[in-house]
């Protein structure tokens, strides 16, 4: 394709790009959940920020003034701590969602690759009889790691183990169906 | 009343409705916010999908856009069109989401698998021909191409959004165009 033709073609295709595309799943539920979670955190901060009795703003005496000052300072520190803690909690919640998304993507990728290989080798002779048992053992191991990840979705060791198990399963399917010499 | 006037009137009514929804959402009306979400979900997701090249990441980034938007909606003053402002928010949030995702992958799996995000970038089903090519582009080239050619940002703006030098942004854009030209000639 000549350069002017390409530029013209590209421009036309850019103009024709769809402006909208819909996701495959409902995203609102997750958004609403996160907004509620955030609202709960701010309510908590608000409630703790209002712990001072109303009469403490009186200017009748110096000791009371110093109490007001101390109480205000304490409340500022408390609000700052709660904001920090709230932020930590929120970001932890976000990270957990991201991690779960990543695990889902990793698993989806593995499943589609596994399906592709099984279709590719369907009906072809395998070099060991018990490869399906071995595959099942690895499948069980992956299941156990999945369960552990539900409690600790950002555990790097578990994630590495899951990825490794998936790779071993794919390698197993390939190796038992492709002669060693053909692999070299 | 001719058809042109009817269309203009419809647009005016829609703009007024949108304005009312924005004001209500800024005052904390969750129902109004949901209506804005439904109105703009398709646009936000389309941009997130083009930038990430991956359905799951795009869904995740879209959720993050609408969570952060709820917090920052009060900053929208109405000086520009809401859709323009929302596109910028979407681009910024998605780029930052991608950076975070990549950092986390690097920390978790080490440098060897740092391009996991690229690895799964083919896991999408674009129907438009150019979208299919865009998704095949390497991550940085894809980001710059989408932001510059599709969304109309200048390289200086892209540099600020992505923390890449202006020169790198231009180089990535040329790289993207070179690849697209190659693919479009062969396919």
UniProtKB/TrEMBL annotation, chain A:
Top-level lineage group: Bacteria
Keyword terms, alphabetized: Membrane, Transmembrane, Transmembrane helix
Chain ranges passing through the membrane: 68-87
Protein name: Uncharacterized protein
Species: Neiella holothuriorum
Automatic annotation (TrEMBL), chain B:
Residue ranges of every copy of the RNA polymerase sigma-70 region domain listed in the record: 36-102
Domain of life: Bacteria
Keywords: Sigma factor, Transcription, Transcription regulation
Keyword Transmembrane helix among record annotations: no
RNA polymerase sigma factor 70 region 4 type domain mapped to chain residues: 128-180
Keyword Transmembrane helix: no
Family per similarity comment: Belongs to the sigma-70 factor family. ECF subfamily.
SUPFAM superfamilies noted in UniProt: Sigma2 domain of RNA polymerase sigma factors, Sigma3 and sigma4 domains of RNA polymerase sigma factors
Cited InterPro entries: RNA_pol_sigma-70-like, RNA_pol_sigma-70_dom, RNA_pol_sigma70_r2, RNA_pol_sigma70_r4_t2, RNA_pol_sigma_r2, RNA_pol_sigma_r3/r4-like, WH-like_DNA-bd_sf
Name of this chain's protein: RNA polymerase sigma factor
């Amino acid at each position: 394709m000549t350069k002017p033709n390409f530029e013209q073609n590209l421009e036309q295709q850019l103009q024709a790009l769809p402006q909208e595309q819909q996701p495959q799943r409902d995203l609102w539920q997750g958004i609403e959940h996160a907004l509620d979670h955030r609202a709960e955190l701010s309510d908590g901060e608000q409630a703790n920020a209002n712990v001072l009795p109303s009469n403490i703003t009186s200017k009748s005496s110096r000791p009371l003034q110093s109490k007001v000052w101390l109480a205000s300072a304490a409340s500022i520190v408390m609000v700052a701590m709660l904001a920090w803690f709230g932020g930590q909690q929120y970001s932890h919640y976000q990270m957990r969602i991201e991690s779960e998304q990543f695990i889902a993507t990793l698993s989806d990728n593995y499943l589609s690759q596994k399906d592709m290989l099984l279709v590719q080798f369907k009906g072809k002779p395998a070099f060991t009889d018990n490869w399906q048992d071995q595959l099942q053992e690895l499948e069980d191991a992956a299941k156990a790691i999945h369960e552990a990840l539900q409690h600790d979705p950002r555990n790097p060791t578990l994630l590495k183990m899951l990825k490794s198990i998936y790779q071993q399963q794919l390698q197993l399917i390939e190796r038992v169906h492709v002669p060693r010499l053909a692999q070299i | 009343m001719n058809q042109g006037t009817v269309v203009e009137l419809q647009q005016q009514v829609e703009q007024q409705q949108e304005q009312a929804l924005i004001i209500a959402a800024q005052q904390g009306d969750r129902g109004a916010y949901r209506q804005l979400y439904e109105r703009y979900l398709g646009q936000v997701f389309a941009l997130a999908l083009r930038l990430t090249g991956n359905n799951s990441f795009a869904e995740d980034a879209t959720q993050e856009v609408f969570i952060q938007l709820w917090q920052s909606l009060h900053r929208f003053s109405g000086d520009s069109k809401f859709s323009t402002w929302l596109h910028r928010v979407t681009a910024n949030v998605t780029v930052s989401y991608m950076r975070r995702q990549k950092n986390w992958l690097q920390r978790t799996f080490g440098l060897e698998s740092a391009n996991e995000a690229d690895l799964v970038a083919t896991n999408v089903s674009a129907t438009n021909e150019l979208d299919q090519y865009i998704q095949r582009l390497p991550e940085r080239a894809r980001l710059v191409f989408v932001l510059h050619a599709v969304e109309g940002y200048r390289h200086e703006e892209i540099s600020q959004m992505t923390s890449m030098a202006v020169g790198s942004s231009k180089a990535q854009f040329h790289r993207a165009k070179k690849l697209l030209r190659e693919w479009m000639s062969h396919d």
